[in-house]
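Subject: Sanity check before I submit

Could someone independently write out the C-alpha cells for this chain? I want to compare against mine line by line before I put it in a report. The sequence has 175 residues.
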Amino acid sequence: KQEEMAESQQMLIDNQQGFAINLEKLESNQEKFAADQKMLANKQEEMAESQQMLIDNQQGFAINLEKLESNQEKFAANQKMLADKQGEMAENQQEFAANLQKLESNQEKFLSSLTRLEFRVENEIINKIGALFDAREIQQDINRKIISSLERIEAKVDILQMETVHIRHKNQKSV
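---
Independent answer below. Compare away.
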C-alpha cells in the first residue's frame, strides 16, 4: 500500500507539475491574449479614425459634387447663352451679307450711271469745244475782215485828209 501510495503521490506530483506547466502556458497565453486584445483595440481605434476620415472625405466629396453640379448648370447656361449669341451673330452676318449685296448692286448701278454721265458730258464738252473753236475761227475771220476794212478806211481817211489839207491850202492862197 505504501507503494501504491507512493505511486499515487508520485502521480499526483507529476500531475501537479503538469498542471503548473499548463498554468504557466495558460498565463503566458493570457498575456498574449491581453496584448492581442490591446492591439485589436488600437486597430479598432485606428479603424474608427479612418472611418471618420472617410465620412469627412465623403461629406467633402458631396460638397464638391454639389459645387460641380452647380458649375455644370452654370456652364450649361453659359453654353446656351453662347449658342444664342452665335445664332444672333449668324443672323447679323446674313443681314450684313444681304446689305453688302445691295451695296454692290447699288455700286454697279452707280458706276453704270456714272459711265453714261461721263459719256454724255464728254460728248457735250467735245461738241461745245468744237463749237468754240469754230466760233473762234469765224471770229478771227471777221476780225481779219474788220482789220482789213479799217486799214482801207484809214487809207481813205489819210487820202481825204491830204486832199483836205491841199484844198485848204489852196483856198488860203486864193484868199
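---
OP: Matches mine. For the report I'm noting this point. The helical segments are 2-174.
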